[in-house]
Request: fold
Amino acid sequence: MSETLRRTPLYETHVRSAARLVPFAGWEMPVQYTGVMAEAKAVREAVGLFDVSHMGRAYLEGAQATDFLDYLTANAVSKLTDGQGQYSLMCYENGGVVDDIIIYRVCAERYTIIFNAGNRDKDLAWMREKLTDFTATLTDVSDETALIAVQGPKAIALLGDVIAALPRFGIGETAFAGIAVTAARTGYTGEDGAELICAADQSAALWDALIAAGATACGLGARDALRLEAALPLYGHEMDESVNPYEARLGWVVKLDKAANFIGKEALQAVKADGPKRKCVGITLEGKGIPREGYPVFAPPAPDNGGASVGHITSGTFSPTVNRGIAMARIESAYAKIGTALEVEIRGARHAATVAPLPFYKNV
Reply:
């Protein structure tokens, strides 16, 4: 039996715009409109627009909302002030990652949480299971709202002064074209911009207004290339339940010294003390070829490894901005030093590659 795909409130808008729709994380989503290269260029040079309504959105409210989030996540939610957001991780007791999320503090007793589309049901179940000992209420608002990302060097000028006044990871209330939005100064492209939450039934009007103002509609193909250029991790690729934050290049998120105990702390203390056995690194190909997820990575033959695989590609693409094959890979820590010569096997042939500094592209 074929899978029944979910659709965002903007589905009909994408159909009307002749977007190419594909299955993604259980959703029918636009992968491109005019083409990945053109859309990526629009984001790097002007303003791109993404429907990210498939991602989960929930409100947490209650007297112990802060205490709960400090227990639930590896970062220090208690350090947030009103109007601030924070990238964080929910971890299992063994240190593996449940999901990466963004938490926005509206006030001490109210937070907005954004989480990944493919983990929506799992995340909600996990949070509700852990919430039972805390005085707080979790409300899933994913279906009654939409989420639109506006990204690029001209995005903030397009969005207006209220959003321009927000700091990075700040959140506030405003309106665009008369439509009420909650705006967060965040994104997933390596460019400046904002993510706008609005009522689901207002999303098509908001999308059309943003297009009329000069934004270019972009699909998941451009989004994935852009986030990889900026070395932003993706759940199920750079991290999952078998990968801890230190292996995923996300150790900076883990606040082992925060006052609150949190799920996975003991396991993560041990990983930090011993050092991770694997690391997430950037890789650039020396010639033609595109490294793809799952391709094996080798160290050139040497007496100590015999040319055995030392890891695999977690995310890879041809970069529209860097103009070459780029990837992130999880490899044995001994081969993770920048400048290390490696090989990526593509369709049975070895291609020379090098461990490269991350990100591949940086603007903000």
Remarks:
- The mean pLDDT is 96.
